[in-house]
Amino acid sequence: MSTSAQFDFAPLLPAGLPAPAARWTGLAKYCFVGGNNDPDQVPVDGLLEAVNAVLKREGRNLATYNLAHGPQGYLPLRQFLTEKLKRDAGIACTPDEIMIVSGSLQALDLVNHTLLAKGDTVLIEQETYQGSLNRLTRLGVNAVGIPLDGDGIRIDALAAALADHKRRGITPKYIYTIPTVQNPTGSILPESPRAEMLTLSKEYGVPIFEDDCYADLIWNGERPPAIYAMSKHGGVIHIGSFSKSIAPALRVGFIVAPWEIMSRMLPLKTDAGSGALEQMVLSEYCAPHFATHVPRLTRGLRAKLDTLMEALNEQFGTAAEFEAPKGGIFLWVKLPDNVDTLKLYQAALAAGVSINPGPEWSTNKAHSSSRLRLCFASPSHEQIREGVAVLAEVCRKEFGVPARSSNVEKHG
User: Fold this and answer.
1) pTM score, two decimals?
2) What residues does the Aminotransferase class I/classII large domain cover (predicted)?
């Protein structure tokens, strides 16, 4: 069939669709993008054992949607989560207050489709998860960025924004925050600003949407209680994921919420259940191994972060500014103001290095135009060093940054 005779779908497409996808051409040679994790740290042997054990024992249940455990997901996995959340985040909840979802992205969609309509307003951290920003844009929701400091969201700025919206007769639908290992900055919000945020939430009648996807990956293993755990009046929806602690491709996340709002989300989960095999295997593996696997994983990630920071200091010298994150898989880097990271991204990609340009992770494009996010979890130590050297070369060619002597100045 010749191309000219092919059916034309274009006139049938509704307005407002996202731009067409480009064909997949594989990962860059030096890949510093995405929420990918360390391939050497995926517990393959343990997962293999778990697959065999759980399939032999319960495989016949795959004949029933949701393994006959109901639309909120595999009960043993929800039971594991109640214990884990109590131990790690201080959250006291029952399995009935947990829904297993297909990665935290489905959690975002379910919360958004339950609470938001076109034209609504939400308050969100100024630098934040690109997936959250893109979803709000597509829904026609006004995302108001609240500035961050070294600890996370600035509570004074949040209070001012809430007061300002109230004056204008607008009640935001939620406050979205990544308080524990913030994406992209890697900060951890201390307990007292968490308490202040809850006070503001109650005062203004605006719920908190707490995204805790990176909370397992803290270098020292210590974290404040989840905002959900600290709330005395409800009003918090909490989401998390196994993507960063076990493996992103498993696509298993979870929502913790009071039944009153959980019961409104459930009818919107129209996929007849998240992947059951993944839930069974995770439950089987995590119950005995999670507590020993995660510290091993974070030690490996911390070593890669050190390699990345050393490579940046060596190649960029004083031209690259950054705060060491408290955990996670990302480093948020500030380059000199004349560097446009959207342009740097294109030039670097042509040279085999993929980076996340800052404006895609911010409500304030001007503030983040010279910033970039680097994921250090996936590349090897050698790839990190080589990739940063290539990035510096491209940046020098495009923007004159770093000047050749910058690393000498740093040590001079």
Assistant:
1) 0.95
2) 61-390
3-state per-residue secondary structure call for 324-353: CCCECCEEEEECCCCCCHHHHHHHHHHCCE
How deeply is 76 buried, as exposed, middle or buried, from its count of CB atoms within 10 A (0-12, 13-18, 19+)?
buried
For 27-71, the DSSP string reads --SEE--TT---GGGS-HHHHHHHHHHHHHHHGGGGGSGGGGS-T
* DSSP per-residue letters across 153-200: E-HHHHHHHHHHHHHTT---S-EEE--BS-TTT--B--HHHHHHHHHH
The H or E element that residue 289 is part of is helix 276-316
Per-residue tens of pLDDT for the chain, all 412 residues? 455 679 999 999 998 888 899 999 999 999 999 889 999 999 999 999 999 999 999 999 999 999 999 999 999 999 999 999 999 999 999 999 999 999 999 999 999 999 999 999 999 999 999 999 999 999 999 999 999 999 999 999 999 999 999 999 999 999 999 999 999 999 999 999 999 999 999 999 999 999 999 999 999 999 999 999 999 999 999 999 999 999 999 999 999 999 999 999 999 999 999 999 999 999 999 999 999 999 999 999 999 999 999 999 999 999 999 999 999 999 999 999 999 999 999 999 999 999 999 999 999 999 999 999 999 999 999 999 999 999 999 999 999 999 875 444 444 3
Cα 117 to Cα 173: distance, rounded to the nearest angstrom: 9
